[in-house]
Specification:
It contains 9 helices and no strands. The chain has 159 residues and is an all-alpha fold.
Length: 159
């Protein structure tokens, strides 16, 4: 539709087709820039649009972890696992947050769940080895040898 027609009260095609913002991709871009608080705002908007999106919840948990908000991260991981119990990245991330809290039985349970259906890729093999080693340490050393996890690549753990 021409500008002249719009000037006289006509509607443009863009008026007829409202565009939804892709808040998830916006949040991921903000995270890549290191702006985790802004990313969390975008994740919240994405969650408002799709409250049961396990991907948004898992990514929110990662951003909360990076900003030191462990309790919020734990809640997001747990909610993601309610929606999709086989979500390997959420099991992995939650396990290491539970280790930080000193909840070794909980961490052991989530590491086992992660290892039941581990992701299949060359990149993921590193995280699988880390989970196996940590699980071994929890079982063999009375929890003293457990190490903190690195959740930098949790997004890639989703099969």
């Amino acid at each position: 539709m021409s500008w002249w027609s719009r000037l006289l009260g006509g509607k443009s095609e863009s008026d007829l087709k409202p565009q939804r913002l892709d808040y998830l991709n916006e949040a991921l871009a903000l995270e890549r820039q290191g702006d985790y608080d802004a990313a969390l705002t975008s994740y919240r908007l994405a969650l408002r649009d799709q409250p049961n999106d396990h991907r948004v919840l898992q990514n929110m948990a990662i951003a909360f972890t990076k900003t030191g908000r462990v309790e919020e991260a734990v809640r997001c991981y747990r909610r993601a696992l309610e929606l999709k119990p086989s979500l390997s990245g959420a099991h992995y991330g939650l396990a290491f947050l539970l280790i930080k809290r000193g909840d070794y039985p909980g961490a052991e349970k989530h590491l086992e769940s992660f290892l039941e259906t581990p992701p299949k890729s060359a990149e993921a093999e590193r995280w699988v080895r880390h989970a196996r080693q940590t699980l071994e340490e929890i079982r063999s050393s009375g929890n003293d040898g457990a190490r903190d996890g690195d959740d930098a690549s949790l997004r890639e753990l989703e099969p």
